[in-house]
Amino acid sequence: MIELLVVIAIIFLLIGILLGAMRSARIAARKAETRDMVLQIKTAWQAYLDEYRRFPETEISQMDVMAIQILNGQNASENPKRIPFMDFRKGGQTTEFLDPYGNMYQVDLDTGLDNWVTTPQGEVRAAVAVWSLGRDGTPGTEDDLKSWER
Q1: What region, left, alpha or beta, does residue 136 occupy, with left being phi > 0 and alpha being psi -120 to 50 degrees?
Q2: What is the CATH number of the domain that holds 60?
Q3: Looking at the domain assignment, is residue 1 inside a domain?
Q4: Number of domains in the chain
Q5: Fewest Cβ atoms closer than 10 Å to its Cβ: which of 1, 7, 89, 148?
Q6: What is the pLDDT, as a whole number, of residue 46?
Q7: Rounded alpha-carbon distances, angstroms, from residue 63 to 38, 60, 119
C-alpha cells in the first residue's frame, strides 16, 4: 500500500515538472515567433523605403489595415507599383496584424529621413522601429520585443 502511494506521488511530481517545462517551451516559442515577425515587418518597411525613397504619407503607427494594404500592394496611392513587400496571408489577418499575445505590432517610421524614430523608450537611431507590446500589452515595459535590440 505504501509503495503504491509512493509511485502515485512520483507520477504526480513528474507530471508537475512536465507541465512546467511545456509552459516554458510555449512562452519561448511565442517570444521567438514575435521576434521573427518584428524583424520581418522592419525588413518590409525598409524595402518600401529602398523602393520609393520615402515612407508613406499616411501616418503609420501600428500594423492596422492601412499598413497591411500598403505593404501587400493593395493601396495604389501609397504603393503605386503594387509591390508586395510582405505576405499577410498567414493566419488570415487582413484587418490588423496581431502578435501571438493578441496585440497589434507597433511601428514608427522615420518620415523625416534623418534616421531617428520615437519609441516608448525614447529616441532610437533607425529608419524603422517595430515592437510588440509583449505579454502584458503595456508599452514601454520590460517584456516588449523591439527591433532595435537583440
Answers
A1: alpha
A2: 3.30.700
A3: no
A4: 1
A5: 1
A6: 97
A7: 11, 8, 15
Is residue 86 one of the residues assigned to a domain? Answer: yes
Q: In the beta sheet, which residues pair with residue 62?
A: 106
Q: What is the CA radius of gyration of the chain?
A: 21
Is 6 a domain residue? no
Please enumerate, as own/partner, the contacts of 55-59 that have beta carbons within 8 Å and a separation of 24 or more.
55/109, 55/110, 55/111, 56/109
Whole-number percent of the chain with pLDDT over 70: 95
What percent of the chain is modeled with pLDDT above 90? 61
Residue 27 pLDDT: 85
Question: Rounded to an integer, what distance in angstroms lies between the CA atom of residue 135 and that of residue 141?
Answer: 10
Tell whether 31 is covered by a domain: no
Q: Name every residue whose Cβ is closer than 8 Å to that of residue 1 and which is 6 or more positions away in sequence.
A: none
DSSP label at residue 107: E
Q: How far apart are CA 41 and CA 63, in angstroms?
A: 9
- Domain of residue 71 covers 42-146
Q: Which amino acid is at 96?
A: E
